[in-house]
Amino acid sequence: MKNRLLINLLLLFTVANLATNSIFAADNYPFSVGASVLGKFGVNAAEVPQGTQNAISFLNGVDFALVGYMPMSEESKTGLFLELGYTNSPFGLKSTGFPEVYKVNAKFFTISPILLMSGFTVGLDFGFGLSTDYNFSEYYRPMDNDINVNLRIGGIIPVYQNRIGALNFIINGTYSITGMQYSDGGFTYHPSSLSFGLNYLFNMEDW
């Protein structure tokens, strides 16, 4: 599991490096507002009960957020994002020796302060529990209304920009710092996810 997390981190740093060397990297975004939408897959990055294995789970839906951006430099893409989002935390479990994956998806309203540094993003997701979907026994039923804090790193690559705004490709990796407690004998799960998507930022400085 640690190797999977390391691979995810290396991928994120690679994408961030590509963003830094983009032909747009020297041009910061203006003060902007917009929205983002992302697809995601996740896995638990912590110990599981005996007889259980971790498995990757793909989200059947999307994350979305309202986004605000405040620039901190005119010469490089450095600034602060604030996101208000509907965020999922999917992961899978399966019994040892059986192929069927039991899926969990905890849903949160999130408030996310994020620092942008030349195409590289780092921040925190503060999640407030909304509901949880699962397709297996009540024994593993997640506790509702958990507060979840994720460490978040990623990258943003401009796809198209004009005076109206900017369309961007985004990639995010998250790791649940607090973890989520489930009613299965005291185990705390720490979902780790990788997501890909797009956002659009409207230029508010020319209004």
Q: Can you give a write-up of this model?
A:
- With 207 residues, the protein is mainly beta.
- It has one domain (2-203): Porin (Beta Barrel), CATH 2.40.160.
- The protein is built from one helix and twelve strands, in the order H-E-E-E-E-E-E-E-E-E-E-E-E.
- An eight-stranded antiparallel β-barrel has the order 1-4-5-6-7-8-9-12.
- Strand 8 (147-161) and strand 9 (165-176) form a beta hairpin.
- The radius of gyration is 18 Å and the shape is elongated.
- The chain starts with a helix and ends with a strand.
- The relative contact order is 0.24.
The helix content, as a percent range, equals under 10%
Number of strands: 12
CATH fold annotation: Porin
What's the pLDDT, averaged over the residues?
83
